[in-house]
Amino acid sequence: MAKVSSQDLGQQPIGKLLVKQAVPASIGILVMSLNILVDTIFVGNWIGSTAIAAINVVLPVSFFIAALGMAIGVGGSSIISRALGANNHLKALKTFGNQITLTLLFTLTFISFGLYYINDIIPAFGGKGAIFEPAKIYYRIVLYGVPVLALCMMGNTVIRAEGKPKMAMYAMLFPSVGNLFLDYVFINLFGWGMEGAAWATTGSYILCFLFILWFFISKHSELKISLQHFGLDVPIIKEIGSLGFVTLSRQAIVSVTYLLMNNILFELGGETSVTAYAIVGRMLMFALFPVYGITQGFLPIAGFNYGAKKYNRVRLSINTAIKYAALLCSVVFVFLMVFPEAITSMFTQNKEVLHETPPAMRWVFAATPIIAVQLIGAAYFQAVGKAIPALLLTLTRQGIFFIPLILILPKFYGELGVWISFPIADVLSTLVTGFFLNREVKLNLRPKETE
pTM to 2 decimals? Predict the structure, then answer.
């Protein structure tokens, strides 16, 4: 694949650029999504449908703790990139050392808390009834590996900051393939059940960590840190925190959503409904990977041309990205409307789950063709450095609309109220984003004579 230089971003045709940028981003997202999808299929078929629900209960806890590593990674990597560009190697080393120290401090603290209150946290996140025991088994083992996962997520962003995107992609491939292999060995061959699923997940984290550790101690990395770089530096900590806050906020909302959904659905339909949500959730991660790839590919194109004041190209990049994303969203929509029964049967043969999941999936993805506006609109404000509108629009769907809807609608429509909350939130957030994006284009992206 041809390499895209910074000058290409301001000169090459937008459509061609978008494809070049979106394909590698989509591959990375696809690998991660496939890992989660196939892992869930293995667990559902080799252990049972309750095991899927159990894993879904644990996800928001482990994801939030791991997101601390991602937030520290995103914030610190921005500092490292600018420091390396300014030949301030000492600041880059100090930042990387602080990232490691902060990641370990935060994750170990949260994990100690999480293990101590294990019997309270699991039911709070929906692990009730038959789900409790398998969730507890999975939770305990996976939590042991979460500090390693947080270090991996932090380290991966630093690898990208060093300008080594292929190495960062390899770091995602190793744990994905490793997890599936270990699933087969621990669950199917050894018959370890939920313990096998948990150790396979934790083992995949360790594989990723070993690759990232090798990268930083090998000749590939410029960041050769020593003990003196691990000491916390207050100005660096503040800068990491301010830059990583958006990432952490986004993941916090996701974790809250999982917590509410698991509890609401358990009260309405028990283990079957929680399992249905787990399957639909996996499809939300997997089915839209090419759309998320376009969103990631759009960011540097819009950002570069906005900085160069080539506003015609910015407008064109917005329109092109929305068109491409909408087309892909429509393909996903048709596929999921036609084949939800076949998709559900890949995960489980439980009759109750097979009956409940397809209609839920149709409702959840009902507004998929229009969400391109919401995704690209929020990404635009991030690309041009407008952090507050980017954060607000990113959180609009789940934080402002979806969470209130799932708290209100089920009181009137029962379980149906949960599922219809998804398309309603999609429509409302798309309308809001479309309004602000249209206003932005009219006010700040007017044609210039220099274009």
Answer: 0.74
